[in-house]
């Protein structure tokens, strides 16, 4: 089979690796529009279950990814001048450049052809048995047939910006700072021995009230360094190069598609779906897409049937993740509702932000019920069974009231 993956991110590279491992006779090309090594971003996160799945599909690249990753178990929340630390599941961070380097090296070793600074433009698809659109949320291949794919985009309310710092966090760290124009907060996590990612977020009124919508990028970074001085311990913040937009604020766009394939063209990763960054699952979901597509193509079936099987399996797997992402984004949009709680309770509800019931109960009541359910098995079962049903009923009532 001749395969062209358009997009040299984790999804496209990993799919190429898996297909080449399945059958070395496959002729596989990965085309990336940017020069090699010129990716945007500092680090990505993932958790132990992904590493286990990577090992099952390609042990060699999994070992390289694990060896290049940093680990943490603690979560830290700073609220004003108070700090709370909780022990949680083992998390991993790896530099995006390093991840792509590992996957590109592995793909080349297996015989995949990598073409950088290579556009897949024009009206015609590349000549191949299978063309994979792994070119991100702004996919040009998908946009050509947006009507067929049924592409829908919902824009969130809050504004956010991705930044880097030389401060190396030893835990996944949250910092919430109150300003004269409302709250502004940051998530920080390490990705290597010399740096960390910092995502800063705030409500639109805070963004404009602080002047971040009209301040030069260098001054923006200086302002954010002042607000998060306790978090950064004297380290600075860095944005994208000025030629790429500098400290570029945006609102998150949740993208879905009604169908994921058209003939021999199939969507992969962010080209097919996006989930809010606050759940830290983007790279994981992209790699899982690649695993599922490779598995579907290995099973004996005509190409349309294999692509339909891939889509069905991934859409089913994504349902709980997309739900968690929606409620996580809403938690941050409703942040003042939770910051009135004592910090340890606020942090506990931060960990519960994926719950469909949390937005519809007073935060302190939810906290007490959740604590009680943690000690009593009958209450845990009741929460699992009735929570989603009650949340759907309350949400339907809320939507009816708005109509």
What does this structure look like?
This protein is of the alpha/beta class. Helices cover 44% and strands 24% of the residues. The protein is built from 15 helices and 16 strands. Strands 3-5-4-10-11-12-9-13 form an eight-stranded mixed beta sheet. Helix 1 (10-22) links the parallel strand 1 and strand 2. The radius of gyration is 22 Å and the shape is globular. It starts with a strand and ends with a helix.
Labels describing this entry:
15 helices; 6-stranded mixed β-sheet; 8-stranded mixed β-sheet; globular; single chain; 403 residues; 44% helix; 24% strand; alpha/beta
Brief overview:
With 403 residues, this protein is of the alpha/beta class. The protein contains 15 helices and 16 strands. The relative contact order is 0.13.
